[in-house]
Amino acid sequence: MAVLVTGASAGFGAAMCRRFVTAGYRVIGAARRAGKLAQLQQELGAAFYPLSMDVTDKASVDAALASLPPQWADIDLLVNNAGLALGLEAADKADYGDWETMIHTNVLGLTYLTRQILPQMVARGSGYIINMGSIAGTYPYPGGNVYGATKAFVRQFSLNLRADLAGTGIRVSNIEPGMCGGTEFSQVRFKGDEARVAALYADVAFLSGEDIANTALWLYQTPPHMNVNSIEIMPVAQSFSALPVRRQ
Ligand code: 8X3
Questions:
Q1: Is 134 a pocket residue for ligand 1 (Cβ < 6 Å)?
Q2: Is 135 in the pocket of ligand 1 (CB under 6 A)?
Q3: Flavoprotein: is it a keyword of this entry (predicted)?
Q4: Which residues pair with 6 in a beta bridge?
Q5: Pair 55, 112: CB distance under 8 Å
Q6: Which of 15, 9, 2 is nearest to 175 (CA)?
Q7: Domain ranges for the chain
Q8: Is 225 exposed, middle or buried (0-12, 13-18, 19+ CB in 10 A)?
Q9: 138: CA distance to ligand 1 center in Å?
């Protein structure tokens, strides 16, 4: 039995691979960047299996999964972690290509992996799917437009999976983090604008990839009769703000 983590080359995904291997699990790390996966394999050893795939390309997902050696083919936990935010512009100014990339990765990629791996879990009558949502899937904010909408898809898809999987013993959870740092998330969102990234995180005790990896491990180790449907996590430094009102 193995754990499969997508988006394993950096951030939450790499942190999860490290955490699960340290906890004694066998982990398949899936990502596009084979070099980063090879580094992770050097670090983690035989308990880690690097799997090159592009989650936005269904044929690549299918071929990668079909290539798994038999001893790595039974997946008990799928962590659909691959995802990204691109841009923070208002909807009338956002780059449409960015919207497409987010939808392909955060929505279609997640559904490809899920659809491919669920049948083996159903056949065994056990398994766990952890999806990476976001607080952006619940709370709207300016510039969140398509990114937040993809995470709202992930939240509802997670709940709907539970409806379909009733009686199977398979568990599904959606992790919904708020502000996290120390990952490539904001570098990617702001396309390498390091000054903007630094300004965002300045003097904030943000969540780390390790915090999210520990959460995923805790979920997986909860007793089999227990399903955490969703878990929303923010740094203490982040909270809510009043809705803006435009006065005449
Ligand atoms: C990451 C959280 O607040 O940047 O999904 O959208 S936020």
A1: yes
A2: yes
A3: no
A4: 30
A5: yes
A6: 15
A7: 2-225
A8: exposed
A9: 10
> What's the average pLDDT block by block, 10 residues per block, for the chain (248 residues)?
97 98 98 97 98 97 98 98 97 98 98 98 98 98 97 98 98 98 92 92 95 98 98 98 95
- Dig out the tokens for 61 from the structure: 């997902």
| 208 phi and psi angles, rounded to 5 deg | -110, 165
**Which residue from 84, 132, 134, 206 has its CB within 8 A of the most atoms of ligand 1, so it is best to mutate?**
134
What is the 91 CA–ligand 1 centroid distance (Å)? 17
Render the burial of 24-44: b for 16+ CB within 10 Å, e for the rest: ebbbbbbbbeeebbeebbeeb
Instruction: Give 6 Cα–ligand 1 centroid separation in angstroms.
Output: 19
Minimal-distance CA residue to ligand 1 atom 5: 134
Q: Which two tokens stand for residue 31?
A: 């990502």
Q: How far apart are the first and last CA of the chain?
A: 62
Matching residue, tokens 């520990």:
214
**CA–CA distance, 99 with 147 (Å, rounded to integer):** 8
Query: Is the beta carbon of 150 within 6 A of some atom in ligand 1?
Result: no
ipTM exceeding cut-off 0.85 for this assembly? yes
| Rounded alpha-carbon distances, angstroms, from residue 42 to 28, 45, 52, 96, 178 | 14, 6, 16, 39, 31
Tell me if 136 CB under 6 Å of ligand 1. yes
| Residue of the CA atom closest to atom 2 of ligand 1 | 178
Active site residues: 147
Which CATH number is 2-225 given?
3.40.50.720
- Tell me if 179 CB under 6 Å of ligand 1: yes
Helices 209-221, 11-22: axis angle to 10 degrees equals: 50
- In contact, 97 and 149? CB cutoff 8 Å: no
